[in-house]
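We examine the record.

___
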Amino acid sequence: MIVRTLMLGLMLGLTPLAAAAKPATAPSPANAPLTMPDMPLHDPWIVADAATGTYHLFTTNQKSMTGDARLGIMAYTSRDLKHWTRPHVVFALPPGGWANDGAWAPEVHRWRGRWYLFSTYYNEAAKLPRQGVRQPVRRSTTLAVADRLDGPFMPVRDNEPLVEAARMTLDGSLYTDRQGKPWLVYAHEWVQIGDGTIEAMPLTDALAAAGPPRILFHASDAPWAKGNRQPDGSADYVTDGPELFRTKTGTLLMLWSSYDRDGYVQGLARSRSGELAGPWEQLPPLLRADSGHGMLFRRFDGALTMVVHRPFENARGKLYAMRDLGDRVELVREMTELDGETKPVPAAR
């Protein structure tokens, strides 16, 4: 897994967009001393909370930022997208479970009056059956819940994977279709299947599996995607970070990421039917230059915005003004006045 109002957006299958909010007051440097160059983060997810006029940016916990060594998710907050508070831990993985690493790709969605955190964990020692030259391990998205955006989030169903444990998956996103039915959209790892896929699995109202997953597309469907050739002659193609967005004309789009010959890429796909089942066509990428795992949200002034991380190693957040063209979205410009980038990367050609 955008809201114009949070509940309406969930009914339409969108990710967090802000509703009309109270005007944000100027932040105090003492309370919000960070700017994006100061903020290490991967897989950023921003929720614009209309009730408080506050942006919440979720990412993997880092002890250097929070002073807390636990495996989990931390959140920065801001009133203006430029000045950010020091992060705090909103979820810590309970000890003794199946996972011991990860805390990747946090997404926070409003569902049935509560906030649900989707994040990905793994365990390198928990081997799955070998697939030729590939050795998959347990890796899955799990669920936690809270009554407040700032947590604390508590594990749902003992932090068990949403998708069956035999499938090596990551980056689960909540999507709600036009009938109000929830789905988990996620990446099936190339480490297990070679040509990574984006898949969708129906969920119950309790956000548990309600049926078998279905493949939406393969990474190799994108003409720009580069496969990593293996000794047996096969090629590995990566899928990462799916997030769905319905445009002003009802077109269903998906942001997702993979690699081209130069690094990480922010891709874009479009459903020809306007529904989750597709078929899905690959559009030109939104961004190249080692940028990706993006998501869309609306600022409190209503402007459509995308956040990505760049570069892949030692990543920082980058903000882009976006335009909804009805049949697709396009990048307008990098918001260097907010993210501090001195060498902005243009839109992908």
Observations:
- Confidence is low (pLDDT under 50) at residues 1-26.
- The longest helix spans residues 6-12.
- Residues 6-339 form a domain with the Tachylectin-2; Chain A fold (CATH 2.115.10.20).
